[in-house]
Specification:
Blueprint: E1 2-7, E2 10-16, H1 23-39, H2 47-52, H3 62-77, E3 85-86, E4 89-90, H4 93-110, E5 116-120, E6 123-127, E7 136-142, E8 145-155, E9 158-164, E10 187-192, H5 195-208, H6 212-217, E11 223-227, E12 233-235
Antiparallel strand pairs: 1-2, 2-5, 3-4, 5-6, 6-9, 7-8, 9-10, 10-11, 11-12
Helix pairs in contact: 1-4, 4-5
């Protein structure tokens, strides 16, 4: 079974091969709505918006504390390139999407489903095999023509996340360069051990610009594929093992 709903301002698709009814989908989508209500930087009543208006730290929820800790951890690992504090305003979007997909994947897995796929705004967790009993095929879009797929990767029990400016415009900034947009990079796709890891590092590495792919090259268990402003692709040494 397969369902898609619009949450967090983007389509979220879940496909569960062994599902016989809508129950696991309903629970999954309800979780995404809960996270959106808590972490949305656009909703005035979200906990994040309240924090940006001065909510006392003693009133932070456990989930908020967990996410803020993970954000700080990611900032340290990436030498400050991942930073949720943009000129005094917190925005956890660069981590929460992958984190929430990973959490939903764990919920579905605990219910006994071993073959499923979750995609939210281009970030993907693929578990087990598809209905043809093959690894899940994931397309990487051409940022200069989003109707074109330039690469297809086959993955199982891995996460994929893409950062870029071709759909949402400039929304990732370099905290080490007066929060200016990175130059000479159009899109960056990261394959990691799960979608949480892939997503948080895709955001940070995109902020690094063209040098960011070398950061992924040095990380065991991760691969990346980058397209620059000149339509030239660069990828890590192990990326081709996933290419269809």
């Amino acid at each position: 079974m397969k369902r898609t709903e619009l949450i967090m301002g983007m389509p979220i698709t879940i496909e569960i091969i062994q599902a016989k009814d809508n129950k696991p989908f309903t629970e999954a989508f309800n979780y995404f709505r809960k996270i959106d209500e808590k972490f949305s930087p656009y909703k005035q009543n979200s906990e994040l918006s309240q924090i940006n208006r001065g909510l006392d730290e003693s009133r932070y929820s456990k989930e908020m504390k967990d996410v803020l800790r993970l954000c700080e951890d990611t900032k340290n690992i990436t030498n400050g390139y991942f930073d949720i504090n943009n000129q005094g305003t917190l925005d956890t979007s660069g981590l929460v999407k992958g984190w929430s997909i990973d959490n939903v994947a764990r919920l579905i897995y605990k219910k006994g489903f071993k073959d499923f796929y979750i995609e939210a705004g281009g970030d993907i967790q693929a578990v087990g095999l598809n209905k043809e009993k093959k690894p899940w095929a994931i397309g990487i879009r051409n940022p200069f023509n989003i109707e074109e797929i330039v690469k297809v990767v086959n993955i199982s029990n891995l996460g994929v996340a893409t950062s870029g400016t071709y759909l949402r415009g400039e929304h990732i900034y370099n905290p080490k360069n007066n929060y200016k947009s990175p130059k000479n990079i159009k899109s960056l796709t990261v394959i990691g051990p799960d979608v949480f890891e892939a997503d948080r590092f895709a955001t940070a590495v995109f902020a690094m610009g063209q040098e960011g792919i070398m950061f992924i090259e040095a990380m065991p268990g991760f691969e990346a594929y980058m397209i620059d402003d000149n339509k030239i692709a660069t990828y890590t040494k192990g990326f081709n093992k996933y290419v269809a």
